[in-house]
Write a structure and sequence with these properties.
Elements (H helix, E strand, L loop, with lengths): L8 H14 L6 H23 L8 H12 L2 H6 L1 H22 L6 H36 L1
Helix pairs in contact: 2-6, 3-5, 5-6
Length: 145
């Protein structure tokens, strides 16, 4: 509290009392339930991603829009930080993907689409898996207490 030397002892004591009264050393039941809800949402996102089929040239835009809509829907963006992370990632990466496929003179486009699917799923899955592992680690520590 060195920066706040000018605060009177009475105010300091009152603030400390309020903080001590309202703080906890563990998550509340509602906070724990919220973590489980986030974990379940992340696992559903992972299942969705694994079930996706590789795109064809005819449906590349639909494929990418569908992934974006499902992994980062407007409702999920409001509630789940994982969706916000995935949305940010997709906003950055999709412009490069579209630029690549809009470049003329490419050969083996179908092979590129299959490779794209593998790489995109791999990187999205790494993000989701990291998030799931982090939540599971936190929840295991909560359950130990």
């Amino acid at each position: 509290m060195g920066r706040f030397k000018y605060i009177s002892q009475a105010v300091n004591s009152r603030v400390r009392f309020i903080l001590d009264k309202n703080s906890q050393i563990k998550f509340s039941d509602s906070e724990t339930q919220q973590l489980f809800k986030k974990l379940n949402h992340a696992k559903l996102q992972q299942q969705y991603l694994q079930a996706r089929q590789a795109p064809t040239k005819a449906n590349l835009e639909v494929y990418l829009q569908d992934i974006s809509d499902n992994l980062a829907s407007d409702d999920d963006l409001k509630e789940y930080e994982l969706s916000r992370v995935l949305d940010t990632y997709l906003k950055y990466i999709l412009s490069y993907i579209f630029d690549f496929f809009n470049t003329s003179g490419k050969t083996e486009e179908e092979k590129h689409l299959i490779d794209l699917d593998k790489i995109l799923k791999k990187h999205l899955n790494k993000i989701i898996t990291f998030y799931i592992d982090s939540l599971e680690d936190k929840l295991s520590k909560i359950n130990l207490n």
